[in-house]
Every structure is written in C-alpha cells, then in structure tokens.
Amino acid sequence: MKIPAIKKLVETYNLEELGAAENALMEEQPLTIEVEGDDEGEQLTHVYAAIWIISHMNANNVDFKTALREYTKKVRVSIN
C-alpha cells in the first residue's frame, strides 16, 4: 500500500470511475484509468482504499488526511 498512489486516485477520480476500475481488476480486464501498483493486487488495494476514503470523506464531512488516518487505523487493526 502506497499512500501517494491512493492520494492520486482520490484527487483524480470519482467513485464511479474507481468502481469501474475495481470491477475491471476483479474481472482481469484492462483498466481505463491509471492506477499505480507493482501488480494487480496492489492496484486493487489502492482502488479499495481510495473508494473507502472518498466515501468516508463524503459521509463524515472530513478532509483527506483525516479519512486517510481512519483508513490506516482500520488496516492496522485488521493486521493485528
């Protein structure tokens, strides 16, 4: 997971575009947007994170940094 890649997705694409990218990755289809990542798994991680962050920003009226902090907390908890 690379924070700059997630930030770029959040700043560049909307939820519809990210959802289409998620579906393309799940179906092993070519992407119509640029998603950084060493492989499809990392790309999917970045897309999932961007979708979660944008949704959290919209639902809670918070900025990117706050939403990112909440997302990384969730990741840390799931790893432990």
Q: How would you characterize this protein structure?
A:
The structure is a single chain. The protein is mostly helical and 80 residues long. The protein contains 4 helices and no strands. It has helices at 3-12, 15-26, 40-60, 64-79. The longest helix has 21 residues, at 40-60. The model has no long low-confidence stretch (mean pLDDT 96).
Give me some keywords for this one:
74% helix, 80 residues, globular, mainly alpha
Structure summary:
By secondary structure, this protein is an all-alpha fold. The protein is built from 4 helices and no strands.
Structural class, please? Answer: mainly alpha
Number of helices: 4
SSE order, one letter for each helix or strand: HHHH
Which segments are poorly predicted (pLDDT under 50) over 5 or more consecutive residues? none
Extended strand count: 0
The main β sheet shows up as: none
What is the rounded Rg? 12 Å
Distance between the termini: 16 Å
Strand content: under 5%
Instruction: Bin the helical content.
Output: over 70%
Average pLDDT value? 96
Shape: globular
Please write out the topology:
Layout: H1 3-12, H2 15-26, H3 40-60, H4 64-79
